[in-house]
Amino acid sequence: MMEWGRRNKRELVLMMHILLPLCVHWIAEEMTHSVLVDVTTTALCSGKSTCPEAIYINGLQQTIVGIFKMVVLPVLGQLSDDYGRKPLLLLTISTTIAPFTLLAINKSKPFVYAYYVLRTISFIISQGSIFCISAAYVADVLDDDKKTAGFSWMMGLFSASHVLGNVIARFLPGNYIFEVSIALLIFSPAYIILFLTETVTPAPKANQRLPLLRKVLKIVQQRYDSMKKAATVVMDSPTLKCITLVLFFYELGMSSIDTTLLYYLKAVFGFNKNQFSEILIVVGIGSIFSQLLVLPIISRFVGEKVVLCAALLSSTIYALLYGLAWAPWVPYLSAAFGVVNILVKPCTYAIISKASSSTDQGKTQGFIAGIQSISSLLSPLAMTPLTNLFLSKDAPFKCKGFSFVCASFSVAISFGIAWMLKPSPSTKTTEVGDSDVEAPLLT
């Protein structure tokens, strides 16, 4: 009993040391979210209600990020297995500081363009990878029967951070938002350096006296072998293969909504920073309740598959309502479905983790996130021009949110695939037999 109590206490401390800096980081990012729309549209399309240039730049950014994330995300996941979670978290979390520093200095058009360049680089490194590496860390420190609750708490605090960030953005003057955000963004990596405990023992290094060319070739070969192994692990598991398809179609629809939603609401209903914050607060408050209290309880009775299907169905309705919004109150109604939508990620993290061995947590999470990035690449190629077309006077018919209606069909496909999902039992730790694949990068 005493040993069980000590183990629980240790798990709680380890979870706190990962969740606190993540929470602060998410607050810092979210508090800039609503004001960025006003800053970018003012700089790029001053005096206009619609800003096609801003929508196209965001679509281009998402496309570029999607291209590079296909490679970067799996590699970062593999590196976290080889070198540890802590250095990779430090790298990914720190990349957000520079872009917001530019906007704190100046919000003119050249600085906004420079912000987009640095933010694109930041997204390539951090978008998705923070979740993947954090999910692998949670899987390291928790037993299988606690993983769903652990992922639920992580995503619940993500929602709580969104609420706090939007409350700050709602009441803090716009001139101070970026300065406060930068201070919080610096706090997170500092906390990780001081308090986060590494959960991975790096593989032993081989002879370091190899010629430089052979060393480089060996690094490339190891990354290729490791990525091939990750692909094999996913493809050999019916559960992982199915969940990959679910997340592909889900991300294909939802990423297009995330990219253009606030610009769409500003163009159609004239929403500003305060109304953006209110909508995001509605989503965040409900999401806290659903993830911290509802998911850990109901998943024990119905399983992750049922909760995942309910969340995907809710996401379909969410997208459809935004697309057909006929009055300013409809987006608030649609936002209410975010209470259930948010359960998609913790459920998929739990399903992926339980279907993967302990030595492959980072690889499988990273590989599947890399597949999701393909959706992030494809989505803006179709949805960005479609959104601009139906917001313009040249629309073939009257439905300003038609791109969101199309996105709802993609999410509906993911719901159909998830319905056929058969979650596999938890996978025990496998023996590490392939030393070349599991070795560190520099050998």
What would your notes on this structure say?
The protein has 443 residues and is mostly helical. The protein has one domain: Growth Hormone, Chain: A (Up-down Bundle). It is built from 17 helices and no strands. The protein has helices at residues 2-44, 52-83, 85-94, 97-105, 109-126, 129-141, 144-171, 174-195, 212-236, 238-269, 273-323, 330-336, 338-341, 344-354, 361-391, 402-419, 435-438. Helix 2 runs antiparallel to helix 3, helix 2 packs parallel to helix 6 (129-141) and helix 3 packs antiparallel against helix 6. The model is unreliable at 426-443 (pLDDT under 50).
Keywords:
443 residues; mainly alpha; Growth Hormone, Chain: A; 0% strand; globular; disordered C terminus
In short:
The chain is an all-alpha fold and 443 residues long. The chain is 81% helix and 0% strand.
Shape: globular
Radius of gyration: 22 Å
Strand content: under 5%
Terminal CA distance reads 44 Å
Can you give the helix content as a percent range?
over 70%
How many strands in all?
Answer: 0
Order of helices and strands: HHHHHHHHHHHHHHHHH
Number of domains: 1
CATH architecture: Up-down Bundle
